[in-house]
Design a protein that fits this description.
about 140 residues; single chain; eight-stranded antiparallel barrel; 1 helix; mainly beta
Length: about 140
C-alpha cells in the first residue's frame, strides 16, 4: 500500500513539473495598440513651437512596433522601430532622404489610446537637446 501511494505521489509530481514547463514566459501583447495612422507635431530649434509633422503609420506585432512617415514638402521619408512596454513606445527613428539623420524617441500613449506625447533626440546633435513629438490617432 505504501509503495502504491509513493508511486502515485511521484506520478503527480512528474505531471506537475511537465505542466509547469508548458507555460509561456513570453511577453504578453500590450493592452493598447499603436496600429494605425497618427497625425503628429514636433518641436525643433526653439524647443517650444509645435510645428505640423508628418502622418506616421504604425504596425504592431506583440510588443514590437514599426512605423513609416513621408514628408513631401522636404522630400524625405522616415522609419521608426521600437518596443512597447505598458503604454510607452521606446525606439529609434531614421530619415531616408537626409543623410546622417537618425536618433531616439519615446512616446507615451494616453489612457484613451487616441493621443501620445513624446520626445525625440538626434544622434547628430552634440548638445544632447531633447525635442517634443506628439501625435493624434486619425
Amino acid at each position: 500500500m505504501k509503495k502504491s501511494i509513493s508511486l502515485i505521489l511521484i506520478g503527480l509530481a512528474c505531471l506537475m513539473l511537465m505542466a509547469a514547463g508548458c507555460t509561456s514566459t513570453s511577453d504578453p501583447t500590450p493592452a493598447m495598440s499603436w496600429d494605425g495612422i497618427w497625425s503628429t507635431t514636433w518641436t525643433s530649434a526653439d524647443h517650444a513651437t509645435l510645428i505640423p509633422g508628418d502622418d506616421i503609420t504604425f504596425t504592431q506585432t506583440g510588443s514590437s512596433v514599426t512605423g513609416t512617415y513621408v514628408n513631401p514638402e522636404e522630400n524625405f521619408s522616415g522609419s521608426i522601430t521600437g518596443t512597447v512596454e505598458g503604454n510607452t513606445l521606446t525606439g529609434t527613428w531614421s530619415e531616408n532622404g537626409l543623410p546622417g539623420t537618425s536618433g531616439t524617441m519615446v512616446f507615451v500613449m494616453s489612457a484613451d489610446g487616441n493621443t501620445f506625447s513624446g520626445t525625440w533626440e538626434s544622434a547628430d546633435d552634440t548638445t544632447g537637446a531633447t525635442y517634443l513629438w506628439n501625435g493624434v490617432r486619425k
